[in-house]
Amino acid sequence: MNELGPDLRTAYEEDGYVFPAYRDRCFADAPESALSLLADSFPRNIPDGAFEGLLDGGIENVVLLVVDGFGLDQWARLRRELPLLDAFESDGTVTPLTSTYPSETAAAITTLHTGLLPAEHGLLGWHQYLDSIGESIQTLPYLLEDGTPVQDEYPLANPRELFDGEAIYGDAEAAGIDTHVTQPEHIAGSISSELTTAGAETHDYWNVADMAVTLRNVVADADEPTHVTAYVPNVDTISHVTGTETDRYDAKVRMVTEAIRTGFLDGLDAETAEETALLVTADHGHTNVDQSVAVDLSAPAVQDCLARGADGEPIPPQGGPRNVQFHVRDGRVEELREYLDRAAGDDVLTFTEAAYRERGLFGSNHAKPGETFDRRAPDLLAVHRDHVMWHEADDKIGVHGGMTPAEMLVPFGAARASDLRS
């Protein structure tokens, strides 16, 4: 890790909880910082030291590889075992960043494709209540909680309700940058992806090896400044199933990194490799939990405090089990807060709306909150230190969304492709 790393936790950690380092060293600043290598119109809020060797000119292509769920802890554990990570350590620069809050894919990936902080775009978690239909949905797949596509049940539902703002790729194209996105075929073309990647050319892929070859072909064929956002969900998926300390986890990370090394880097011609920057980061990390010690939010003491929807039923907790957002009946916030303190003791951190706005947890201290954020802003926010809190059973081992270092700290590797080649 470079010299920018050691003080990150000193500056942003309090009592074991890591706060997001917006406009300093945060995943939220990766999209525009990456584009700044190709056009001066984009701000580089991540410090210049994170791009050592890339600011001297000559960069014509930028690949921003986002390995969903690959936190800093796991990078550090595997960096000497995996050739690609070792090459970044020895021939590039690796800078710790924080995730956004929440450290959840739905919020962070919306930030990735828009360049907006969560307070600006307003998509605050995997589970989100939509006023227009009076139900909670799974946001990125745009499904009702039972798995039914939203528009099957509500044909007039407008997907634009998911978030405020537009994809960053239109601005990039206006700056003379040819933009591309690679996504798994089951994600590419989905409703949320169509919105978040508008303006970029999308390339779907069926496995990571296929994606690596696509990356190579895109930059090799480029005849103008080119930016590719490459998204890989495989590590996040295995983390949920096995946790982050298993042979299967390590094998999955090796598969991803070796595909990039052999299918992308080693296949580039010398001139293209010299002109190409490879940036590798993650939207969040994972912490491993024992689901048997979860705090159950289906208890009457919780349900009685929840605000009601148009149908008179309680609006369930939103966000996710590590990022629990409560919409609360008038006058019941402190009652609910006291219950959570009794149920989880010193292991829960709670914020009222005034408190998390003042702390800028969603980024409101760096940007003006949007209308969607103001509408969805929870009355009470709760983050468990070590475990999960939710209103239905789950069986995930690796989880995220909270504020532990394992969830909040991610790597940001940067190097010329030519320096990483074996």
Quick description:
With 422 residues, the chain is an alpha/beta fold.
Furnish the topology, listing elements before pairings:
Elements: H1 8-12, E1 13-14, E2 17-18, H2 30-35, E3 61-67, H3 72-78, H4 83-91, E4 93-98, H5 105-114, H6 118-121, E5 127-130, E6 135-138, E7 143-144, H7 150-153, H8 169-174, E8 178-184, H9 191-196, E9 201-205, H10 208-220, E10 226-232, H11 234-242, H12 247-264, H13 270-274, E11 276-281, E12 287-288, E13 295-296, H14 300-303, E14 318-320, E15 323-326, H15 333-344, E16 348-352, H16 353-359, H17 371-376, E17 380-384, E18 389-390, E19 398-399, H18 405-408, E20 409-416, H19 417-420
Strand content: 15-25%
What do we call the CATH homologous superfamily of the largest domain?
Alkaline Phosphatase, subunit A
Q: Regarding quaternary structure, how should these chains be classified?
A: single chain
Derived structural class: alpha/beta
What's the architecture of the largest domain in CATH terms?
3-Layer(aba) Sandwich
Q: How helical, in percent, are the residues?
A: 25-40%
Q: Could you say which overall geometry the principal axes of the C-alpha atoms support?
A: globular
Strand order of the largest sheet: 4-20-11-3-10-8-9
- Which CATH class of the largest domain is shown? Alpha Beta
Question: Could you tell me the radius of gyration in angstroms?
Answer: 21 Å
Q: What is the straight-line distance between the termini?
A: 21 Å
| Mean pLDDT, all residues | 95
| Number of strand segments | 20
pLDDT < 50 stretches: none
How many domains, in number, for the residues?
Answer: 2
The DSSP helix count reads: 19
The major β-sheet equals: 7 strands, mixed
